[in-house]
Amino acid sequence: MASRLPVVHLYTYLAAPLQESLHKLCPGMAVVKVVGSNFDTYGLLPSAPTPEDVAALQEAEILVADPNLMPPLMHKLPQLKWVQSTWAGVDSMLKHLDKTKPLPSYTLTRFGGVFGPAMAEYVISNIVNRERRAQKQWENQRNGVWDRAGDIHNYRPLTMLSVGILGVGDIGKDIARYCKTFGMTVWGVVRRELSQDKRSPYVDHYRKFSELPEVLQKCDYICCVLPSTAETKGLLNGNILESCKEKKSVFINIGRGDVISEETIVNAIQSGWISHAILDVFETEPLPATSQLWKMPQVTITPHVSAVSIPSQVAEMFYDNYQRYVKGEELKYIINLENGY
């Protein structure tokens, strides 16, 4: 029975722990670990496959891979039927599709159902830190200062806050659930009108992107979880954040960096439209040391870690899909190669 199971190839910086986790879940699964040439960067930097890598993958039917390692291989693996991404986003792969060639015939699935809670924790923790002035209190502690004045004393409880979530897919719905659990008023911004059965019970108000200015005017926090697609690139550029000036909103971006330019964020802060920006994603990653954002006190920077791929979780999600694949059932979290999500 075990010998008849489809072989799984791994091309990811998670290969060693992922292989171990898969063997625990399914001892009969044959797993081939293909070691790349530069797997010491936690998946953020691309790595050109060696000729040995390409040769080792020629027979691959099922491939678990970091999407940014896939561009050189997308049209070079003739036996490939299914690629499972280790990331939730696959734009680093799809933006390199050769438009002069037919779309790959294999199925691409994303790492789904896991990042939402982790990203929601990131949002909640940053909101609490911001409202309770955690950085100021840390500075006071370091300097031996007992200060209960101003915003440290007169903080806003979460129940007084409103948050606007740009993109209410799986991840956005988890963020909405966490925010609503803490008593916030939740606004959700979506591309098109949703039927009632597709709406989250944790979103108080739904609006379309054409109504975004209303949401920006009414929310204390704006949380962007939009993916990188042809529709979303540069979507928030220009003066659209001027609508935040009444609330002096805090802008959080944990989606993709190309949705809004660095220039737009800097201008929104300097113009007084937003009071702070909490950024986990950027147009260019790693964020260059020359970026103006590093030196702005109104900016909090984290290195794309609002959610990370944990090998055991990737293995569990993949194994669930693997069982579906073996049974001929539809896979979960399929990506449409044409629209990118």
UniProtKB/TrEMBL annotation:
<keyword id="KW-0560">Oxidoreductase</keyword>
<keyword id="KW-0520">NAD</keyword>
<dbReference type="GO" id="GO:0051287">
    <property type="term" value="F:NAD binding"/>
</dbReference>
<dbReference type="InterPro" id="IPR006140">
    <property type="entry name" value="D-isomer_DH_NAD-bd"/>
</dbReference>
<feature type="domain" description="D-isomer specific 2-hydroxyacid dehydrogenase NAD-binding">
    <location>
        <begin position="127"/>
        <end position="306"/>
    </location>
</feature>
<protein>
    <submittedName>
        <fullName>Uncharacterized protein LOC109474138</fullName>
    </submittedName>
</protein>
<dbReference type="InterPro" id="IPR036291">
    <property type="entry name" value="NAD(P)-bd_dom_sf"/>
</dbReference>
<dbReference type="Pfam" id="PF02826">
    <property type="entry name" value="2-Hacid_dh_C"/>
</dbReference>
<dbReference type="GO" id="GO:0016491">
    <property type="term" value="F:oxidoreductase activity"/>
</dbReference>
